[in-house]
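[Q] Does anyone have a clean structure-token version of this?
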Amino acid sequence: MGVVEKTMSNTQDEIAKEREQARTAYRDIGSNSGESAAAWDAVEELEAEASHQSKSKSAFERYCDDNPGASECRVYEE
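[A] Here you go.
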């Protein structure tokens, strides 16, 4: 398993853990509580992170990462 897969697996585990805590807060404290809202915010943040991690680079992006001096990879500032 590669680093990305391990990271995604860890993130998915964290999402499941946070989601269970949010459900517990919702059930035990109520939907209008600050604790419940904060717990669901944590779930949303982790899901956003997972979405960002899952985006893989294109072949061109990988090429430019490996060959930053290549003319086709130059970025010009205006």
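[Q] Thanks! Anything notable?
[A] The CA atoms of residues 6 and 20 lie 21 Å apart.
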